[in-house]
Amino acid sequence: MKFISPILAIIVCAAAAYFTLTASEKFQKEQTTRLDAISTNKTVTAKADGNDVAIEKLEVELEASKQNLDVATASAEILESTERTLQTDLSRLDDQVASQDVELEALNKTLEAVKVIFKDLGFEGEVDINNLVEKINEIQEDTKTKRAKVEELETLITGAKSTLVKKQDTVARLVDRKQTRNVRISLNAMEARITAVNQDWGFLVIGAGSNSGFTPQTTLLVKRDGKLIGRVNPSAIEPTQTIAEIDFKALSPGVLIQPGDQVILANPAGN
Predict the structure, then answer these.
(1) What pLDDT, on the 0 to 100 scale, is given for residue 185?
(2) Mean pLDDT throughout 95-116?
(3) How far is CA 138 from CA 40, 132, 133, in A?
(4) Distance between CA atoms of 243 and 111, rounded to whole angstroms?
(5) Is pLDDT above 90 for 239?
(6) Contact 190, 264 (CB under 8 A)
(7) 75 and 168 part of one domain
């Protein structure tokens, strides 16, 4: 038993040493593995941290890119809107140019007509767009001057017409007076013949009437051979004959009025 114990002790020691060596090797391996794992973990962590930084940087860049994209999109929309506006303005300008071309053509025709008018009015010199206003001002001034002269002439004509009317009225009155006087004078010289006499009824017929100026107020004298023999008063007057009553009180004694005797006005008209 005492002989076995040292051997056993040696075996135990050997086993212990073996296990210790085995455990040491295993520990070394595990330690190496752990250290490798730690190193790997540090590397991965460092990479992860780097990746996080890169991701954050990328996120910042992405956000910036998004903002830039939004700005670019807005700018593109603005540019598109501006382009549409410019297209609209360009179309409107084209219409205006076309309209102005038409107006220019009409203006040129009008200018040609104006040139003819200026020539007819006696204005010398070339007329164009540049001096058209000046020429029109000249015409306006000339028109004002001529209008003033016309107004002056119209005033003179009005005064002359008024004077002429007054003179015409005066002449008309003088003519009327002359005609009336001539009528009166002709009546003074007028003689009419008695065509019939009715002694019983006391009236007679004279071959003249209202056409000769006889009126109911006219008193007629009867004469024979240049001598007055009586007086008669008209009672009925027709255009070409007059019936008159004999004034027997005015008859000359022993005288009877007969057909063929003459009658004249008892009261000659004044001049």
Answers:
(1) 47
(2) 77
(3) 106, 10, 9
(4) 87
(5) yes
(6) yes
(7) no
